[in-house]
Amino acid sequence: MEKIKEILKFAMKMEKDAENFYNYYMDKVESESIRNMFSELAQMEKEHYEILKDKFDQLEFKEPPLTISWVVDNASKAVDPSIIHINSDLIEDDEKEMSDLSIIRMAYHMENDFVMFYKNAVAETEDTEAQKFLKEIIKWEESHRDAFQKKYEELIKKHWKDITNVIFNK
Description:
Blueprint: H1 2-26, H2 32-60, H3 82-86, H4 94-99, H5 101-124, H6 128-159, H7 164-168
Helix pairs in contact: 1-2, 1-5, 5-6
C-alpha cells in the first residue's frame, strides 16, 4: 500500500502541475482554438487530480477494514478534448498558430511524461484493481498526448510543407 500511496502522491502533483501549466499558457497563447483546448484540458487535469486525491484519501484511512474501490465510473471519465479534433482547422491567422508551436510541443512532452509515469506505475503495482485504475488513466493521458502530437504535426505540415520529410524523417 505504501508504494501505491507514493504513486498517487506523485500523480496528484503531476496533475496539479498540468492544470497550472494549461491555466498559465491559456492566457499566453495567441490562437483562440488552442486557448479553448487548454481551458478544457485544465479542467480535465483538475478532475484527474480529484479522482487521484479521492483514492489517496481512502488509503490514508487507517481503521480496518480498508476497502478501496478502484473503479473509475463514467461520471469521472475524462472526455477527449473535442476542441482539438473538431475546431483544429478554424484558425485563420497562420502567425498565431506558429507562435504557439513551442507551447504545443511542451504540452505534448508533458502528457507523454504522464503516460510513461502511469505505465511504470502499473509495472510497480501488484494490486490488480489499482493496475486497472492506472491503466484507465493511461488511456486519458494517451488521448491528450496523441491530440497534441496530431496538432503539432498538422501545424508543421501546414507551415513547412517543403521540408516535412526532413522534420519527421518520413
